[in-house]
Amino acid sequence: MQTDHDKQAPAGAQALFRGLAVIDAVAQGACSLADIGAAIGCTRSTTHRLIAALVQADYLRALGGSSGGYQLGPRLIELGYKARAQMPLSRLAHGHLVRLAQATQDTVHLGVRDGRDVLYIDKLPGSRGLEMRSRIGLRMPLALTGIGKALMLDLPESEWQALHEHGRQLRAGSAMMSWEAFRDRLRDYANGGFSLDLEENELGIRCVAAPIRDAGGQIVAALSVASAVPYMPEARLHDLRPEVIACAQSISAELGWRP
């Protein structure tokens, strides 16, 4: 039986692609020699030779005990860290953000969590000639921004409440929704995989945001599309949601995330 890798492999690369298929099979949960062989479509003897070579090179580790079996090896951990170091998030995401900014004509932000704040690590101005106070390196309270709320979606509600209180204290003297209203809104956002800023952070500015996830499914960043109210009525916010979520998912996929 031929695997997809075998069919697509250039001449002389079949063994390489089969070895990669073994690694992928183990990563997907195949553990025994029989399970790995079934996953890659190879005979027992061929599968054993591939596994032995990968164990020797530390790409796989043989498990001891009567059950035997295999798991991913230390070499892959090392390579994973090196790959991550060579692809900083802002550089990896930038091309996606450029395309989103061009498609929407609005300002696009990329941010990460820094304690109780969102730290903006990239900003692409829109083409409408608008200026907003956000900038690369700026920190803003998570609970007050669309991009910050996107970073909060997987947090427990007790942490939502603490971050809401932090934002409320910083907004002393100005209106901020009650904790109950904030909680209910974040529940809706978490169910939909997005968040909105309806002038809560900056008067006259609205945005729609979505979380970016890593290979483990953890939210590691978020992006947003923002504009002034005349260009961003609530109907357009909702129309932009699929495009913003799709962009965030494309970046997540580059980080190894799979739905």
TrEMBL record:
Transmembrane segments: none annotated. GO terms for molecular function: DNA binding; DNA-binding transcription factor activity. It holds the Pfam family IclR_C. The keyword Cell cycle does not apply. PROSITE patterns: HTH_ICLR, ICLR_ED. Coiled coil: none annotated. It comes from the Bacteria. Signal peptide: none annotated. The keyword Plastid does not apply. Residues 75-257 form the IclR-ED domain. Keywords: DNA-binding, Transcription, Transcription regulation. InterPro entries: GAF-like_dom_sf, HTH_MetabolicPath_Reg, Tscrpt_reg_IclR_C, Tscrpt_reg_IclR_N, WH-like_DNA-bd_sf, WH_DNA-bd_sf. One of its GO terms (biological process) is negative regulation of DNA-templated transcription. Residues 13-74 form the HTH iclR-type domain. PANTHER family: HELIX-TURN-HELIX TRANSCRIPTIONAL REGULATOR, ICLR FAMILY, HTH-TYPE TRANSCRIPTIONAL REGULATOR RV1719. This is Transcriptional regulator, IclR family. It comes from Pseudomonas fulva (strain 12-X).
